[in-house]
From TrEMBL:
Protein name as annotated: Bifunctional oligoribonuclease/PAP phosphatase NrnA
Organism: Mobilitalea sibirica
GO molecular function, one term: nucleic acid binding
Matching PANTHER family: BIFUNCTIONAL OLIGORIBONUCLEASE AND PAP PHOSPHATASE NRNA
Residue ranges of every copy of the DDH domain listed in the record: 18-161
Any one Pfam family match given in the protein's UniProt record, by short name: DHHA1
Length: 334
């Protein structure tokens, strides 16, 4: 069921003493931003709600997100056997995406699922999924009392929105997205600094990896698809983390004449995290879901096993089939 934030507070959180917040594995800007925004929002209401504990669980985050206040409070260890009254999942399309935090979801008395992924399967006791929202941070803004949004909450929400919209250039950016961004700016945030330091700035090593990915990229399906990758060996050579791969797929996507960009990096031998971006009408979410992943129509991902050639050979037939169907449909409509 869909709920309003006041209903979550009054019906689900009120009376709870211990609350856990968690996002998906390999947390990105929207995941981190939404978790920190909700964390600070609940801290503001802690005394009124009689909350004793508010814990945020995430895998290690990139240094670029250190710009957000409170990130040092995030728990990266899952060794405790804490049982929570309420567990709130943010930016997760399915339960398995919670990773190690799933154990706290399973033992919680109540679970709340807040998300914007079209592939979300409503796995919580309470579900608030807005598939046409640009980001989970945009969803949260709609659930928050604007008068209670502080500068630090606004910063977290803004970072989440800019990361999932590619600084407002992706097709998921709407009039509502821009209106919300304006309201967050009115809270006094240093929006230019947030954009530069969390989104655009790269380390020397990240630029080297990006450069290699661009130089070694290939075109397939008559130039309609661009593919690049980072091997496990290369990851180790550069001492790169998964967060260092952020932004590579977006740079591949803007290659002129391509319909789909595919970027795969090897997280373990023969295990690839695959990101896909669509420039046209190809539904990459449909492909990702087929392989056990998820996401949005124009931006999705999944995990595949095998060699890089296996990855390409598994995914490209799905893209080719969609392109043929679209071409046939366009011819019939002429």
């Amino acid at each position: 069921m869909n709920v309003l934030y006041k209903d979550i507070i009054n019906s689900e959180i009120a009376g709870a003493r211990k609350v856990a917040i968690a996002g998906h594995i390999r947390p990105d800007g929207d995941c981190i931003g939404s978790c920190m925004a909700l964390y600070h929002y609940l801290l503001r209401s802690k005394d009124d709600l009689d909350l004793m504990v508010i814990d945020v669980y995430l895998e290690p985050i990139g240094n670029e997100f250190r710009i957000l206040k409170g990130v040092d409070d995030i728990k990266h260890s899952y060794e405790s056997n804490e049982c929570y009254d309420v567990f709130i999942s943010l930016d997760c399309g399915s339960l398995d995406r919670l990773g190690n935090a799933q154990k706290y979801f399973n033992t919680a008395k109540k679970t709340i699922n807040i998300d914007h992924h079209i592939s979300n399967n409503s796995f919580g006791n309470v579900n608030h999924v807005v598939a046409n929202a640009s980001s989970t941070c945009e969803v949260l803004f709609g659930l928050f009392d604007e008068n209670l949004i502080t500068k630090e909450i606004a910063e977290a929400l803004y970072v989440g929105i800019i990361h999932d919209t590619g600084v407002f250039k992706h097709s998921n950016t709407t009039q509502n997205t821009m209106m919300i961004a304006g309201k967050l700016i009115s809270k006094g945030i240093e929006f230019s600094k947030l954009i530069d330091e969390s989104f655009y700035q790269k380390t020397y090593m990240q630029n080297q990896v990006l450069g290699r990915c661009l130089m070694e990229s290939i075109l397939v399906l008559d130039g309609k698809v661009i593919v690049s990758s980072v091997s496990y060996r290369m990851m180790n050579f550069y001492e790169a983390k998964t967060s260092d791969m952020d932004g590579i797929i977006d740079q591949l996507r803007v290659t002129k004449g391509t319909e789909v960009a595919i970027f795969a990096y090897e997280t373990a031998p023969q295990e690839f995290k695959v990101s896909m971006r669509s420039n046209g009408e190809v539904n990459v979410s449909k492909i990702a879901v087929y392989f056990g992943g998820g996401g949005h129509i124009k931006a999705a991902g999944c995990t595949l096993h095998g060699s890089l050639h296996d990855v390409i050979n598994n995914i490209t037939p799905h893209i080719e089939a969609q392109l043929k169907a679209l071409n046939k449909s366009n011819k019939l409509s002429e």
